[in-house]
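ok posting inputs for the FE2/S2 (inorganic) cluster job
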Amino acid sequence: MKHIPPLPTYPESLWIQALEVLPSFSKLQHNIEADVVVVGGGISGITTAYMLTQAGFKVVLLEAGKLLHGTTGHTTAKLTAQHHLIYDELIKQDGKEKAALYYKANQDARKLMESLIEKHAIDCGLQAQDAYVFTNSDEYVQKLQNEISAYETLGITGAYLDQIPLDVPAKAAVRMNGQAQFHPLQYMTALVKVIGESGCQLYEQSTAVDIQEGPHPKVVTADGYSVTCKHVVICSHFPFYDGLGLFFARMHAERSYVLGIKTDMTYPGGMYISAEEPSRSIRSAASSDGTPLLIIGGQNHKTGQGICTINHYEALQGYASQYFNATDIKYRWSAQDLVTGDKLPYIGRITASSPNIYIATGFKKWGMTSSTAAATLISDLIQEKSNEYEELFAPSRSLSLKVVKNLVVDNLDVAKHLIGGKLEMVRRNPEDLAPDEGAAVTVHGKRAGAYRDKEGKLYIVDTTCTHMGCEVEWNDGERTWDCPCHGSRFSITGEVMEGPAEKPLKPVSIE
Ligand code: FES
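and the output
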């Protein structure tokens, strides 16, 4: 029988683990002033800070936790304008001109990143790779044919193929030529160094909780300190400040899973993603000691919904063993992505009435190039330069009837979970939990969430999400509490790990 290597006990991203030195910064502990406050220390925030410091602005960057430990540290790091099957859909949804602009925005972003890597001599494993969407489903063969027609219409260099270099079942594929892959945190830590040397002030463990709007907006942190500025850029993944933009009703959150495996097979090159579900994403990488690895990802689903999350890792484990002869699974990690109604990110002024507050969010799974496009667009807006992508990505853009219908379905799904969670019968008690087990339990006749750690200590929280009151669910793959409504996530002690929730889950006592 074939040996299937075990999954690592705890999630750990290859990118974060493989960095010898992660930069660290102190908390904001006094009131300060700046030209621009950037909130969020991932690729969008740091790249925006880079653009603006290079343009001579005094920039302060606030990160709620540790720099680069959010979605940027958990990506598959493909630098590509091939965002699954999007171009045929975009032509039908928004027309040829906007579809062409979307492609150009992401190609420009990739080229800009490559030029920054060259300019600052960043050693981040940048490699040119072709990108493939493949299918083994008859239903999707037609969709791939439509996609290659869209490539031809838009002048995208690529090809339609009836086989791919990988030895996985595939009836057809669409290739986009000349894309790239890299190590995202080696790239980002180099940019952090550059912005620090250019005068950007960076603060970690400094959670922005509010903006007092006005010509000189004030960003207020959870500790009560503030930064007064002229412009605020919100790059906190889910925007920490809504500004009446109602983003929680205009995006949904998805989770997906990744393994970093060793294999004795020879990899033919290329970056791959399956067209159909369950999704499969494949690329090569290397561990910190240079050992070749493959990154196998997929199994996306709405946050807080579906099967036990560890089952998603197990599905990838089976796939990695069956098709890539995995000899060891070195890493497992997961990521959260935000998906907008029309699948285009929201980049620009948060609303027409708040012209000096900007957001960058809703990148789906394609945040490497989209975030860099966002940084360029927002830094142009702040410098009052025209940018050809302003209208395409404007958060206040109008949506087609079809997109509005999709958002209505999403919001009905939220209502279903809101009501369903309240009616659910929970029969387990905290005493029933084994070490390292979490579950919804009943405490004093009410639903609560309990986790027992390996030493036997119990952590019990109120499972009512502090955003809008849905019931959070246990995520056994990551040991977190996840909300099925808008994707907020909480630690075992109830601390907020992902918004839109701002407040922690309440602790519950069994006394
Ligand atoms: Fe909105 Fe939980 S994230 S109710």
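notes: The longest strand covers residues 326-340. The CA atoms of residues 426 and 445 lie 10 Å apart.
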